[in-house]
TrEMBL record:
One example GO MF annotation: channel activity
Gene3D superfamilies: Glycerol uptake facilitator protein
GO annotations of cellular component type: plasma membrane
Organism: Anopheles stephensi
Keyword terms of this UniProt record: Membrane, Transmembrane, Transmembrane helix, Transport
PANTHER family tied to this protein: AQUAPORIN TRANSPORTER, MIP17260P
Protein name: Aquaporin
Superkingdom assignment: Eukaryota
Length: 259
């Protein structure tokens, strides 16, 4: 792990920082717009809500993952920072862009959807009877499972996992909503909750939706990088695998006579 402040990224055009910030803004705008819109007409259908959030994340990571990493979530950014994969400056600016995009999306919904259909615009809150500590626990594990998945599918030593990364991350978001949306609204994402809280002026228990996912994300990041990271594949193993694959292809093509 290597940690750095990242001040050079502010002036270095090759860092792609400003392009990445725009991608994070657009990405979470799409997430909040479509997923929170689904919440306004779900009528208690938790499967619909779960799919809306999961599919939105799937689409966004597929679209902008190559630009910014497709964080669209301060918990993911915090995990990346804890693992030394992003600089402090980049992490802070990512969170600002994520929050701004979430506010912009929910504001757009506020304008487009008639007031009688708002239904809270997807605002997250604790279920009656759920204590602050219980809510914090739920959100901790939501952040944990999401960031654990992100690190697992983005492991440099598991290149094949990258092909399914967007789908795996999107399904993990759906899993989190299917599991505990009833109790906390399954934020998993501090910026997503911030956007609706800001527009609806609903700040009850809001700190839980920052502390829980971020703490869970940091723990998952450190756990994966220290204990779960895949072993480095040796050059010899790579050469053997390539040779074996070539032999198999020649056999399939009928160009290699089998003895």
């Amino acid at each position: 792990m290597g940690y750095n402040l990242g001040t050079e990224e502010l002036s270095n055009k090759s860092s792609g920082l400003w392009r990445a910030l725009l991608a994070e803004f657009v990405g979470i705008f799409i997430l909040n717009f479509f997923a929170c819109a689904a919440c306004t007409h779900a009528n208690g259908d938790k499967t619909l809500i779960s799919l809306a959030f999961g599919l939105s994340v799937f689409m966004v990571v597929m679209s902008i993952g190559h630009i910014s990493g497709g964080h669209i979530n301060p918990a993911v950014t915090a995990g990346m920072l804890a693992a030394g994969k992003v600089s402090v400056i980049r992490a802070l600016l990512y969170v600002v862009a994520q929050c701004a995009g979430a506010v912009a999306a929910t504001t757009t919904l506020d304008v487009l959807i008639p007031k009688s259909y708002h239904n809270g615009l997807g605002n997250t809150g604790l279920k009656d009877g759920v204590t602050d500590l219980q809510g914090l626990g739920f959100e901790f594990f939501l952040g944990f499972v999401l960031v654990l998945c992100v690190f697992g599918v983005c492991d440099d030593n598991k290149p094949d996992s990258r092909f399914v990364a967007p789908l795996a991350i999107g399904l993990t978001v759906s899993l989190g909503h299917l599991g505990v949306v009833e109790y906390t609204g399954s934020s998993m994402n501090p910026a997503r909750s911030f956007g609706t809280a800001f527009v609806t002026d609903s700040w009850a228990h809001h700190w839980i939706y920052w502390a829980g996912p971020i703490l869970g994300g940091v723990v998952a990041a450190l756990l994966y990088t220290q204990l779960f990271k895949a072993p480095t594949v040796s050059d010899a193993s790579e050469r053997y695998r390539t040779t074996a694959d070539d032999k198999e292809m020649r056999r399939l093509d009928g160009k290699h006579e089998m003895v």
